[in-house]
Amino acid sequence: MPSPAVSSPADHSAPEQSSIRVVIASVAVLLLLAALDQTIVSTALPTIVADLGGLDHLSWVVTAYILASTIVAPLYGKLGDLYGRRVMVFVAVTTFLAGSMLCGAATSMEFLIGARAVQGLGGGGLFVLALSIIADVIAPKDRGKVQGVFAGVFGISSVIGPLIGGWFVEVASWHWIFYVNLPFGFAALAGFFFGFKAQPERVEHKIDYLGAALLSVALGGLVLVTSLGGRTLAWDDPTLLAIIAAAAIAFVAFIFVELRASEPVLPLDLFKSNVFSVTSGIGFISGAMMFGALTFIPIYLQIAKGMTPTQSGWQLIPMTAGLLAASTLSGRYMGRTGRYRILPMIGLSIATVGMFLLTRLMPDTPTAMLWLGLVLVGIGLGTVFPVVTTAVQNTVPRQQIGTATAAGLMFRQVGGSVAVALFGALFAARMAAGLGGSPIEGLANTAELGPQMLATLPEATRETVALAVSNALHPIYWIAMALAFCGVLLTLILKEVPLTGRVVPRGE
């Protein structure tokens, strides 16, 4: 990797080649931690509930982390721009590790939920700061290569997370799915301490506290509504309606505050940029596609196909392979040509075909067809992830790189959260309709469905359930296919600003 000609004075002095390698390795560890923690808990949840009780609070183990991390992500981006990303990395990682230790030591479901919120307060900064730091040490033309590899790291982590979680539950205890974060976190802190030097200068800044609070309420309300609406709370429940109203009011007030703030937490003039606006929309779509595919394919494999959680995890490897190969090649293409516009155009077109194949899933669908669909979806996502971050960082001023990166990741995460919630509600409704609402032999409650229970059901019941699951998934992937096609249309209006070969200092 070539050493940049100029370095950002906001965070470090000009780094040597060896320091850059240390920083990149540390960033990779941060992304590994952030991605693993989004998925490693899933396979351990039944065991956690059996140990701690509180089945009615199960969803909050996941929601607490998503809610906290979504709220603070834009704040980390802005504070990193203002005070330096080195300091904020130490804050984020330390908070994340403290939350991990608390999670591992949890003795009640309420304690675990609170600890997961603490973990999310740190985890929300891992993605944002990691990708922003790359802009501090790597020239735009070379960022695509690095971020392409990081996209592969994220994809691999998303697949191996459930496998690792299941392994720890089987050979040790669920507590270790949280304790495993500690050595990796301390290694990343050491890498940043020695490889990412601080700038001794201090500049006075004015923090947009009101804007940050309003954005937190708006994002928090959105996550809560999509997580709880139609499931934990009915859509006409007064509590849910109050949350919707509070989020809407906070959003409108946030816009008015940001228009007048001297240093807004999310500068609205970013949306005047074609690259930022279009890539934010593409990021929202790609987040919805990825989390939708990853969430519901294991359900199909475990219930319709009767596979174990570990077996279903292995079946996702083709998607990871496609994502890793495409992200690596996309990064090299951007590094060689300095261009990027054609990549998401091709990738989302391929993903559209992949999603179409997933709409054809049935209990007897050949494995090869499933793998082909997953490979195509992975290739599509692999061409998008490196582009959206690199393109934005190439066009915004140096002092807004962290803020813009955080905003882009926020749109991707919100897209994933909204899609999973809405897809989940659609799946539940279609599943109920598919089973007809009448008693089925051996099946007292569809909420009890799982590989172990399926093995005890009569053959005719298993076939009925498998068909109902497959049919319930079809509209989900039709919607995902439509989203991918909308992404293709968005790429048609994306402007291309050629990637430069140097790191631009602050203020230039």
Named at the architecture level, the CATH assignment of the largest domain is Up-down Bundle
Rounded mean pLDDT is 78
What structural class do you assign from the helix and strand content? mainly alpha
Order of helices and strands: HHHHHHHHHHHHHHHHHH
Tell me about the largest β-sheet.
none
CATH superfamily of the largest domain: MFS general substrate transporter like domains
Task: Give your account of this protein's structure.
The protein starts with 16 loop residues before the first helix and ends in a 17-residue tail after the last helix. It folds into 3 domains: 182 residues, Up-down Bundle (Growth Hormone, Chain: A); 54 residues, no CATH class; 231 residues, Growth Hormone, Chain: A, CATH 1.20.1250.20. The chain is mainly α and 508 residues long. It is built from 18 helices and no strands.
Outline:
This protein has helices at about 15-40, 45-50, 60-85, 85-105, 110-135, 140-170, 175-180, 180-195, 210-230, 240-260, 275-305, 310-315, 315-335, 340-360, 365-395, 400-435, 450-455, 460-490.
Keywords:
Growth Hormone, Chain: A; 74% helix; 18 helices; mainly alpha; disordered C terminus
Layout: helices, strands, pairs:
Elements lengths: L16 H23 L5 H8 L5 H26 L1 H20 L4 H29 L2 H32 L4 H4 L1 H15 L13 H20 L9 H23 L13 H31 L4 H6 L2 H21 L4 H17 L8 H29 L5 H35 L15 H6 L2 H33 L17
